[in-house]
Amino acid sequence: MGWLRSAVTGRLSQSIDNATTGDAQVRAGRMTKGVARSPLADLTGTRPLTPGVFGPRLDPDKVPKIELLSSVEPDSVETADGDDGSVPVGLPGAPRSGGDAVPAPVGAGSPGHAGDSESTAAQGAESSGVDTVQDDSYGDVSRETSDIPHPRLGDVSRETAAGDVDEDLPLAQEAKRAVQVLNPGGGAQLPRPTRRRIMAVANQKGGVGKTTTTVNIAVSLALHGNRVLVIDLDPQGNASTGLGVDHHAGVPSIYESLIDNVPLDEVVARVEGIPNLVCAPATIDLAGAEIELVSVVARESRLKRAIEAYPEELDYVLIDCPPSLGLLTVNALVAAEEVMIPIQCEYYALEGLGQLIRNIDLVQAHLNPKIEVSTILLTMYDRRTRLADQVEQEVRSYFTDKVLQAVIPRNVRVSEAPSYGQSVMTYDPGSRGATSYFEAAQEIAQRGAKLGGSA
After folding, report:
1. What is the DSSP letter of 67?
2. Beta partners for 230?
3. Of 286, 273, 272, nearest in space to 319 by CA
4. Which sign, positive or negative, has the C-alpha torsion 181, 185, 188, 190?
5. CA–CA gap between residue 287 and residue 449 (Å, rounded)
6. Contact between 130 and 115 (Cβ < 8 Å)
7. β-pairing verdict for 34-35 and 30-31
């Protein structure tokens, strides 16, 4: 058995050496197939740019070669930001600045001994002659996910509680942000365009925030005086869910407008609590629409004709596209005059972006001469990672002023809101996610006003 032990030991040692060498090559960016680089680097050429309303048109054959992360160091992760998925400083179990864990609140023992903990705490307070003091901080954990009641206000919301606290406290600052986002007094409204702006929110990669962006930008614009129509063109119907609009089988939907020529005003539904916002929902029937459209006359312009026939005055039409480049997305690109592309701040999000731009060029050349990319929005930005900064730099270096200054961070509230049938603007208007989307909506509205509402 000695020879077998020696053979196994030798093979294991060789495997470890190979793995170590491979890991070192990855870190140094010297893989056998070449240095790691950006997917945008594949798009090179000499075709001249043509001017557009929103600056030079994007030419996928004119993208500069950009190296991406030739070497990567392990990221130092901060754990003091609850919005980024970590435990906020100040919560039970979270580290203090010196490294010690924060003790759990008095009475927060195991479920089986909760009564014993409370009685022990009460006896301790009586024996010391000191009133028991509870922590008045929640960090950045939502009330829905916290089991600790507010020590002074019980179940009263944090926004309501902000009226009797110092304006410098985080609670008061959050309440100010909430008031700015919700605009309860109707003041400080966002500028309205001089004519209807139709924007397709597109990116064939899934999970980059298309639907979330569509919903929250639409709600932000509507809360501040703009008349907005959201068209849910994704068979999954997530935009309809996020706006709280019913979209089960049998409900009038955008499918009827595309296939049966039903007027758009007969399928839209009002969004509860937001008077200026309507939505054309998507049902499961939309999943077969692309096959049915193949044999339909003028199949690429069905959505365009439906929007043009819509009788009510609108400032914005936002079209939530599916994560593909099929006939539904083509209908959106033909109907729209602008394209908004949400880009996740990760490496894979850049792959396929060139193909999307090429498709937009094809639509512009053959079906819709007015279409162009007007807006790039960076989403799911994680400030704890160097990769997010690198992707942001690359995107801004290529798309230049088309990229909004507002960046959408990774945020727990943004993820929670759809489960309540709400946007983050109404679910937690004081959160960083809501504030960031409001800032993005401000930029979009201001750009539209400067351009006279044209696209």
Report:
1. B
2. 279, 318
3. 286
4. positive
5. 37
6. no
7. antiparallel
pLDDT tens-digit series, residues 326-336: 899 999 999 99
- Domain range summary for the chain, segments of one domain joined by +: 197-450
DSSP assignment of 174-242: HHHHHHHHH-TT--SPPPPPSS-EEEEE--SSTTSSHHHHHHHHHHHHHHTT--EEEEE--TT-HHHHH
CATH value of 197-450 in 3.40.50.720, 3.20.20.370, 3.40.50.1240, 3.40.50.300: 3.40.50.300
Threshold 0.90, pTM exceeds: no
Confidence class for position 179, pLDDT limits 50, 70, 90 = low
d(CA 203, CA 359): 11
Cα distance between residue 66 and residue 38, in whole Å: 6
Asked if 89 and 139 count as a contact pair (C-beta separation under 8 A), the reply is: yes
Output the six-digit token pair for 138: 């929640």
CA 274 to chain centre: 21
